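Hi again,

Forgot to attach this to my earlier email, sorry! This is the prediction with D-xylitol-5-phosphate bound. I've pasted everything inline since the attachment limit keeps bouncing my files.
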Amino acid sequence: MSIKVAPSLLSADFSCLAQEIKKVERAGADMLHIDIMDGHFVPNLTIGPVVVKYIRKCTKLPLDVHLMIENPQEFVDAFVNAGSDMLTAHIETIPGSKLQALSSKLKRKGIKFGISLNPGTPIAKIKPALKYADFILVMSVNPGFSGQNFIPGAITKIKELSAIYKGDIAVDGGINNLTAKGVIAAGANILAAGSYIFGAKNTREAIERIRNAGK
Ligand code: DX5
Ligand code: ZN
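Structure tokens for the complex follow:
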């Protein structure tokens, strides 16, 4: 599977977001990872649909919107209307009874549905949901902040997942040229990275280093 790199805007300079987006777009990003936090599911706050709507206007890249919020089903329409191409919700926040409806709704609208799990959540918890997902996002840090260290347990989890799931496997948190190697070998093919890409002097080189880390 080809490796896709998703710069996470959480590490961008929000005072000049359009320029930051253009920078990663020109440097070869495959999609933009946008972190939505509500201060409840995670101990931080970020942005809502209003900002996503304006991000949509300044790039052609697919918008990979990562919802780290309680009751994600209540906000799905707003993020769909704002222009998301991929929408990820956490298994810890989606009531089992809502999964099927959520997945069918997104399918009808042509949006990819991702289901994510935190470092503390075992693969067993996500098994019944695999049939509803277009991709699974394995968190390799406890969500809330960029710039945290990669949690090595994510490698075992990706391996375990790739043995039973043939869709795309995304990974998010602490990804750099070194940690990328291990997650790609384990079976991940979409790599979100914030501080490594936005903190790099040469953005294109940083993206390519992640993309080619498994070669
Ligand atoms: C963490 C976010 C990540 C974060 C990644 O809660 O979901 O997308 O921005 O940042 P780095 O790559 O710096 O760990
Ligand atoms: Zn994220």
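Residues 8, 33, 35, 66, 172, 192 surround zinc ion (ligand 2) (CB under 6 Å). The chain is about 35% helix and 20% strand.

That should be everything now.

G.
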